[in-house]
From TrEMBL:
GO terms for biological process: response to antibiotic. CDD domains: Ere-like (cd14728). PANTHER family: ESTERASE, PUTATIVE (AFU_ORTHOLOGUE AFUA_1G05850)-RELATED. This is Erythromycin esterase family protein. It comes from Symplocastrum torsivum CPER-KK1. InterPro entries: Emycin_Estase, Hydrolase/PRTase-associated, UCP036794_erythomycin. Pfam families: Erythro_esteras.
Amino acid sequence: MPDVTRTKLTDAVREAAYRLTGTAEDYDPLMDLIGDARIVLIGEASHGTHEFYEQRIEITKRLIQEKGFTAVAVEADWPDAYRVNRYVRGVNDDATAVEALGEFQDFPIWMWRNTDVLNFINWLRQYNDALPQNARKVGFYGLDLYSMHASIDAVLGYLDKVDPDAAKQARSRYSCFEHFREDTQTYGYATSVGLAESCEDEAVNQLIELQRRTAEYAQRDGQVAEDEFFYAEQNARLVKNAEEYYRSMFRGRVSSWNIRDRHMAGTLDGLVAHLEQQGNQAKVVVWEHNSHLGDARATEMGDAGEFNVGQLVRERYGRDAILIGFSTYTGSVTAASDWGASAELKRVRPALPESYEALFHNTGLPRFLLNLRDGGEVVKELRKPRLERAIGVIYRPDTERMSHYFRTRLSDQFDAVIHIDETRAVEPLERTARWETDEVPETFPSAL
C-alpha cells in the first residue's frame, strides 16, 4: 500500500474512532449498537491480557444492569464453571470466590484463576444477593469440552442421588474409558489407529438414556431440580462430544476445531433454551478468544474449512447477535512457551507493519472503539484482507508471523472492535517462579 494511501486510511480510522477515556460513558456507543440484541460475544486477542478481561467485565456489568442479561458463558469447561455458577447464585457451600474457582486446576490455570475474574465473581455474587427474592439471578457457565472425566464423575454423582439403578448402568457404560484413566490424548490416539475400541456408542447411549428421562428427573422438585438435571445432561453431552474430539485430534486440526466449536455453540443454544423454559427471553454474554468469536467466514480459518462459534451464532441468531473483538499493539502477556508449561510474564512484540494492530497504533490513539456496522469508507476499507494477531495460551515471539498471525477481513469478522494500544499481563492468583522472575521491568505498563 503506498504511503499516501496508508496515511489516508490511518486518518480515516482516527476520525471514525470513538476515544475511550476511562469514564462511565465510554461504552455508550457500544450499548447503542447492541440495542436489543440477545447474544453478545466479547472476544480477546490473547488469553493473558489484563485490559481484555477488565474491559470485557465492564461491558458485561452494563449488559447485566442496563439490558437485563442473565447469563455469562465463557471458554471454560462446564463442570469447573458450574461451581462458580452455584456460588454466584448463592446455592453452594463455598465461602469465598477463591474457593468457588477451585475446580480450575488444569492448564492454563491463569486463564480463569486471575485477579480480574476473581473481582468479577465477587461483584456478581454481590449483585445477585441484592436482587429481589424472586428475581432471576445471573449465572456463570462454561462452554468448553476438555473436562471429559470430570463430566463423567458429575453425571454419576447426579444419578447416584436421583436414580441409583441408572447410576449403575451409567458406570458400566463409562467403564469403557477406565483403561486410559485421564489420559484423553492416549485414548484418542489408540482408538484412531485401531489399538483400542472406541467408547463412542457408550457415550452416546448414556446421553440418550438421560434425555429420555428428562420429565421424570427434571420436575421432581421445581426449578432447582430442573437446573441440576440440565447440569447433568450437559455433562453427558460433553462426554459424547469430547470422546469424538479426542479421536478427531489425530485426523487433523480442521476436524477437531470444528467439533470443539460446534460443541460450544450447541452448549450455548442449550443454555438459551433452558433459561427460556424458566420464563422471559434469554440474554447471554459470551467470553471467548477472538478466533472463536469472530466470524470464521471472514478469515483464513474459513478458507481452510473451519467454522467457529461466531459464525454459528450469526447463522442462528442473525442481527440478534453482536460480535466484539479486541486488539493491542504491544505490552506484556501471561502465556506459556509450550502446552502444559508454566505461566510466564512475556513481552508482546510490536505488531507487524501490515497488520490491523499496526494500523490502529499509527492513529496515535491509546484506546478506542470502532463501530464496524455503520457503513462508510472506513468499514469498506477494513473489509480488505489484512494480518491480525492471535495469542492463545502459548506465545512464541520468535515464530510470531507463522504462529500468531492470520489474514482476515475485519469488517466482516466483527461488528465492533476495541483497540488498546499498550496492554499488560493478567495477574494469576498463583504466581509461578517463571512469572515472577521474567525480565519485563517493574515500570512496564501496568493463551486458543
